[in-house]
Amino acid sequence: MKIFIAAAALVILPLIHQPATAEGLLYRLPTDGTWTRYEYVYTVVGKDNPPRKGTLWMASVGQATVNGEACRWIELRQDEATFGGPLKNTYKVLVPEQHLGRGKSPLNHIVRGWFKGSGEPKVLNSKNNGGFIMIALASPLKDVEELKEEVIVSKLGELACPGIKTTGKFPVSKIDWEVTFETRLHPKAPFGVVTCDFRERGTSLAMKLVDYGEGAKSEMPEAQ
User: Fold this and answer.
1) Which of 11, 82, 131, 201 is a plausible cystine mate for 16, CB 3.0–4.6 Å?
2) Single pTM value for the model
3) Cα–Cα distance for residue pair 127/151, rounded to 1 Å
């Protein structure tokens, strides 16, 4: 799944319009400084390769006003030890608050953004696109199926979580692939999402909330 393992960043600003997908991990916008950590397992169906495991940290790490609009800095950090060695990718994007939350399209309204892999932070642009952020901050699909509540045990405790299933096209290497999101929600989750399962072309990415808190600080404070 190239959109997931890429060590690059997404296309930003009005350079390209991202096709509609699903809401990813940001269904609601909490107070600034809120952070969450998800554990993920990435599996290729029918392959002998062992599942890849890692964590995704997501947080609101600052506020700004641009052209009279209130904006938030949203930062995501992917950490993985099974990618042929340690992997750490950090994404930081500034998005107007009105475009963050359920039914919104944050990838289409990024004011500015940064990506940091093993080197220094780089400005996001149309030449270094791709990456985990395309899933975490994806936009809504038209086809939505409501799922019955399911009890999920997480850092939040044992909660009955309603679900949403969406299926549609996702941009991968200039090709739109059919993908499915199954997301479990609860108002106690800082960004609204307790679990999120993403599937496409024989692969699956399962994410689950394992920790959360306040007082988040950016790992790229110089990137503004």
Assistant:
1) 11
2) 0.86
3) 42
